């Protein structure tokens, strides 16, 4: 009876300790879906807040969306990875970063991603009675490239043509304006030239008159007397 009583007391103490720890610590994961490319690698990371050394804890990553008993992606306990519990499709492709556990960070790397890896991943720490879920979306390589191309797509050819047309129109307008100015200058120069020609003609007529009438105004006087 005494042994059973001691066992019960120990169980109660451990249970109370677990409840106190779980009440003061919380597992947090990214709330936004994580997107990765088919054939690439991804890191699923959760952390304990406030942080505590998790090396002696039991950690499980499972697929919450598969609704099956053997849904373990990666398992860790007694400071070792327990690969025998893994689903076949994840064997040899998962790595838990043990160094991060000291800082209360749970980092699970998955390599050689396939489209079937898309889903909900739950990180569960039984000793803390707490868990958190991450959404992973794996996309095809060509799909990811199309997405990137759409994001950085240059301006449409029509827009470039419109810009070129606007530039050409501006140049034409400038040339027309310059031509009008040039014509005005030429016209003005022509008028000045005509005026110079008229003055030269008047001077020539006077010179010819003087040659015909060397006496100057004498001929005019005779005509006046007659």
Secondary structure layout:
Layout: H1 2-24, E1 26-28, E2 34-37, E3 42-49, E4 59-63, E5 72-77, E6 80-81, E7 94-96, H2 98-101, E8 105-110, E9 119-125, E10 130-139, H3 141-151, H4 157-212, H5 218-225
Parallel strand pairs: 2-10
Antiparallel strand pairs: 1-3, 3-8, 4-5, 4-9, 5-6, 7-8, 9-10
Describe this structure in words.
The chain is of the alpha+beta class and 226 residues long. The protein has a domain at 22-151: Immunoglobulins (Immunoglobulin-like, Sandwich), CATH 2.60.40. Helix content is 45%, strand content 24%. It contains 5 helices and 10 strands. It has helices at residues 2-24, 98-101, 141-151, 157-212, 218-225, and strands at 26-28, 34-37, 42-49, 59-63, 72-77, 80-81, 94-96, 105-110, 119-125, 130-139. It has a 6-stranded mixed sheet. A 4-stranded antiparallel sheet has the order 1-3-8-7. It is found in: Membrane. Pfam families: V-set. This is Butyrophilin-like protein 8 isoform X10.
Characteristic terms for this protein:
226 residues; disordered C terminus; alpha+beta; single chain; 24% strand; six-stranded mixed sheet; Immunoglobulin-like; four-stranded antiparallel sheet
Number of strands: 10
The portion of residues assigned to helices is 40-55%
Structural class: alpha+beta
- CATH level-two architecture of the domain at 22-151: Sandwich
Low-confidence stretches: 10-22, 216-226
Protein name: Butyrophilin-like protein 8 isoform X10
Domain Ig-like: 18-135
Signal peptide: 1-23
Organism: Lates calcarifer (Barramundi)
